[in-house]
Every structure is written in structure tokens, then in C-alpha cells.
Design a protein that fits this description.
TIM Barrel
């Protein structure tokens, strides 16, 4: 099968520690997430369900204190209900890009999309990380861009100046542009590997990117050959106008909140994509939805209520569905369309809610004709999502 058609739902899952609900770490021991076997098991489960991709979270998603913003990503700063939401000691959290590289060789088809922040990292190293992941996974890599709006998240960066909070999305746009140019700095056929001539690369097919922006200055070229996908997918989550504009200008995949306002958001996104000179058909939109699943709808509702009670508040950053896989399939089909190409599901507690997604929900969607029924899968994540292999900008300009 070459890839999903627009009549079929793209399906992704967010893997965030032991679950996306604020109370997941109280329902499940978070220490289990410190093992590579845990992550390979989760990715294998997602692959069994034929999911397009998994995102690997950069940190707990719940707000922690009054200084937390609505960006939904508060790196390593969990809250404890016993302290009324005040920040507590940090939970151990493994690096999502390294997890992705570890599980890539033991997976086959599912896309691997780690969350990596712009504020606390450097674009040159992010470009090599994701390019390396694309190579070791055979073309299944992506990058979910995280732009922190917390002033304190710039304190541990080091020599690179961190922009004020109000300028961080502008810097993120430059950051993504630098990463994309670095991916293009090697042409597809730059590696010649001619041992007899003692030549590994054709230097004429390596390009300095010579980027000079307000926030970043990068010369290049990359130290890593061009990724198999040419450009691994770049994903951006929308949670406000600044992130919508960033997504419209730079993202291949956009995450939007399901629920009220979904249609308005997708319409504004489509208009912004067109204004940016891009084809809206080349942007895949996935709606975010937290799920609590059980074969019994009442049991799912009871478990959702118990999780909220444990959390002592509703800390979810996403709309929540509690019910059966069949009922969830009905809802996803009903909400698809209007600019939504699929969904990124957030298992409330991964141990409880990922298996029903991968085993029951995908079957339910398949019987309704909303998912593929198996067969040969597309060779890359871009192809799986119906996105073309991009032309190398420097190869075109050099000819």
C-alpha cells in the first residue's frame, strides 16, 4: 500500500511516560519508564496496530504551578496533588530522541517522532539527531517542535542567548529553517564511497547554508548525510496564534485540540498555510484527544473519574474521551473531515489504554473502511502520510 488516502484516518499515539493523564504516575509506577524494554514494548504495540507514528514526549504534560503557561509542555516539572499543584522534585525522564534511536532498529514501519525543544537545544545538533534517526529507522523519523514559553526554561542553556518569551516563536521559525537547510546541505548523491580514489563524498555536492537571522547564525554544512526522507517530518502543536503561524509556515504535521473550536482552528490554519505560499494539501492535521478505554463504557467512565480524583483537578491539556473502542471509532469518523486528516490519541494510562487503541480501535476503524486493512506499507513516514519526497533546494540552485 503506497500510503493513506485522504478518505482514511491517519492515526498516531502520544507516548508520555506512563500516561498523559496527570494522575497516570499515581496509577502506575513511573519507574517502569526508565527501561529501554518498556519503550520497545510500547512501540511494538503501536506497530502491531499499524499506527502511522508515535510521538515521544519531552516531559510530563501537566501544568505545575502558577507560572506554567498554556504551552502544555513543562520539562521535568511534575506537580503533586498533595502540594496543591506546587512544583515538586523532578521525575526521572529519558531523552526522547535517544529513545527513538534505541527502538528504531527493533521496529519496522511506525514513524518515530521525538519532542525536542528549541529553547534548550542547538539547531545544528537537532538536525544531526533527527537525520541520524531517519537513517537508522530507514526513513521513519520526525521532529515534534516544542517552544517553551516559560522564562525559567532558558536558565540552563549555556552560551547561546535565549530570546525573551515573546520572541520565542519567531526564533523557532528561524530554528526550523536552519534545521531544514542543514538537511539539504548534502545532496542525495553526495556520498560516492569510492575506495579506489580514496573519496567518500563529492565536495561539490556539499553546501554551506550561510544562514544569518535575527537569532541564529549557522554556516553548515551538516556532518550527517541527507536523511533518506530528504526532509523528515516537522510537527507543530497549535495552542495559540503564534504557534498557528509557526505551523502554517513550517510544519508538515500539525496537532490541534479536538473538541470545541476544532473547525475554526483548522479553517484559520488552512488560510494561514495558503497565505504562507504553501499547499494546504501538503499539511497533515491530526486532532489531539486523550482517551480512557474499556470494553465496558461504564467501567471507562468510572476509571476516568478515579483518575481525575487522584489528580485532585482536571489537569488535562486535551479533550478527553471515556468509553469503548467502538464508540471511539464512531467519534473519530464523525469528527474527521473539515481539514482534519486523523488523530493523535493520548492514552490516559499507557498500560491500560494503549493496547485497546492498537488492537480494538484499529480493527473497528478497519471494519468501517476508515483504516487500511494491512498489506505492503509505504517505505517512509512521509509516504505513509501522503507527503512527497522534497526537492533539495541547494541541488536545484547549483545546477
Amino acid at each position: 500500500m503506497p500510503g493513506l488516502t485522504r478518505q482514511q484516518l491517519a492515526l498516531a499515539v502520544s507516548l508520555s511516560g506512563v500516561g498523559s493523564h496527570p494522575a497516570a504516575r499515581l496509577a502506575e509506577d513511573p519507574a517502569v519508564a526508565a527501561s529501554w524494554r518498556y519503550w520497545t514494548t510500547l512501540v511494538a504495540e503501536a506497530e502491531r496496530g499499524g499506527l502511522e507514528l508515535v510521538t515521544l514526549a519531552d516531559g510530563p504534560s501537566e501544568p505545575t504551578d502558577a507560572s506554567a503557561t498554556n504551552d502544555g509542555h513543562n520539562r521535568n516539572r511534575p506537580s503533586d496533588p498533595a502540594t496543591n499543584g506546587r512544583a515538586t522534585a523532578r521525575l526521572p525522564w529519558l531523552d526522547p530522541a535517544l529513545i527513538a534511536c534505541r527502538v528504531a532498529p527493533v521496529s519496522v514501519a511506525v514513524g518515530l517522532v521525538p519532542e525536542i525543544p528549541t529553547v534548550t537545544t542547538e539547531p545544528f545538533f537537532v538536525s544531526t539527531q533527527i537525520a541520524t534517526l531517519d537513517h537508522v529507522s530507514g526513513g521513519r523519523a520526525g521532529w515534534s517542535v516544542i517552544v517553551s514559553e516559560r522564562a525559567c526554561d532558558g536558565e540552563s542553556v549555556g552560551p547561546r542567548p535565549v530570546p525573551p518569551v515573546g520572541d520565542r516563536f519567531a526564533e523557532a521559525a528561524e530554528y526550523i529553517e536552519v534545521v531544514r537547510r542543514l538537511w539539504d546541505s548534502w545532496e542525495d548523491d553526495a556520498e560516492i564511497r569510492d575506495a579506489t580514489a580514496n573519496r567518500f563524498v563529492d565536495r561539490e555536492r556539499l553546501h554551506h547554508i550561510d544562514f544569518e537571522g535575527r537569532w541564529l547564525s549557522v554556516k553548515g554544512p551538516s556532518i550527517t548525510p541527507r536523511p533518506p526522507q530528504g526532509q523528515p517530518i516537522v510537527a507543530v502543536a497549535i495552542h495559540g496564534q503564534a504557534s498557528l503561524q509557526l505551523a502554517a509556515e513550517q510544519a508538515d504535521v500539525v496537532f490541534v485540540k479536538a473538541g470545541l473550536g476544532l473547525l475554526d482552528t483548522t479553517q484559520r490554519l488552512g488560510d494561514a498555510v495558503a497565505t504562507a505560499g504553501r499547499d494546504p494539501e501538503q499539511v497533515v492535521v491530526l486532532a489531539d484527544l486523550m482517551v480512557v478505554l474499556s470494553d465496558d463504557a461504564g467501567a471507562a467512565a468510572d476509571r476516568a473519574a478515579q483518575l481525575d480524583t487522584l489528580a485532585a483537578r482536571d489537569g488535562s491539556a486535551h479533550a478527553t474521551f471515556a468509553g469503548t473502542p467502538a464508540a471511539l471509532a464512531d467519534r473519530l469518523i464523525e469528527q474527521a473531515g473539515g481539514g482534519v486528516h486523523g488523530f493523535r490519541l493520548h492514552p490516559a494510562v499507557i498500560a491500560d489504554d494503549l493496547p485497546p487503541i492498537a488492537r480494538r480501535l484499529t480493527d473497528e476503524l478497519g471494519t468501517r473502511g476508515a483504516r487500511h486493512a494491512g498489506g505492503v506499507r509505504a517505505p517512509s513516514l512521509r509516504a505513509r502520510l501522503g507527503l512527497p519526497h522534497p526537492t533539495n533546494r541547494y541541488a536545484v540552485s547549483a545546477r
